[in-house]
């Protein structure tokens, strides 16, 4: 896997407007486009890239909790939700995490063309790894193929990527806006992602 750099960082804020004004005035970031998530937030840009994602936590928001998970509101650096890194070779990273026994969960965001993996460091800092979704030659996103037992990895298959990369195709869905898995066990996280989307 090749980490290319930090993609963005996310801050949970009790006052969305005040935070947005602060980062725009102090750091010179600019307000820009944001996907149509079902919770309040803003994306602030630098150099044409959305480097800071702000999310409002002033209200009890079930949509935000479903998307980012529940966290206690703290002050200072405790409000930094996660660090996101952009990477290449999704399957290689999935296999690496599984072989290390590292728990993770994942989400596909078709609107952004992203497949995201989430892990926590030993101190509980959430790390997001972002990979581009693969497309078929005609430009459509891969669709999960049902009834293929080879798409379900066994422990003895985790040391090498599956043939023809069909395994990674199983975790995409053309119809899902985003498809999280809630499985936290490393041994079955990717398998659960593929079975949920069939």
UniProtKB/TrEMBL annotation:
Signal peptide: none annotated. PROSITE patterns: VOC. Keywords: Lyase. Residues 5-132 form the VOC domain. Residues 137-166 are annotated as: Disordered. The keyword Lyase applies. One of its GO terms (molecular function) is lyase activity. The keyword Lyase applies. It comes from Chromobacterium violaceum. This is Lactoylglutathione lyase.
